[in-house]
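Example record for the data management plan.
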Amino acid sequence: MTGADIHPMATGHIPSYVTQADGSDFLFTFMVFFTVGVVVLIGVGYLTLHSVPEKMAHENNHPQFQLVGILALLALFTHNGIFWIAAILVAGFQFPDFAAPLRSIADAIRSLAPGRGLPPEPEAPPAPVTDQGTRTEGDVADA
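Corresponding structural encoding:
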């Protein structure tokens, strides 16, 4: 190939994004790896975001932990944000325990009842018996 065969307006170099003569395409290979990496990162971020309510409930030992987990799964599979918001709200707030004061009132009343709630009084040990089969003087005074 001589210099006369090259067009006078052609550049002296070829850019790196142009496909090589052997068929390798650097830009295509880079974009495939970049796209797969971005999709994986978005998926990890999405799943991490959906697990936030469960992590909150687990760290606080929340009594409604299973409810929070169910709401988070519903939000994940149905793509309804209202379930995720409900899971965050349930995990974020502790509901007051209304049964505890009533339980303590019932325990207090139960302890006031005669014969109930109090431990039984221990019985007195039997008086020692002498060799003659009679009781000692101190035992007679107690009786």
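Summary line stored alongside the record: The mean pLDDT is 80.
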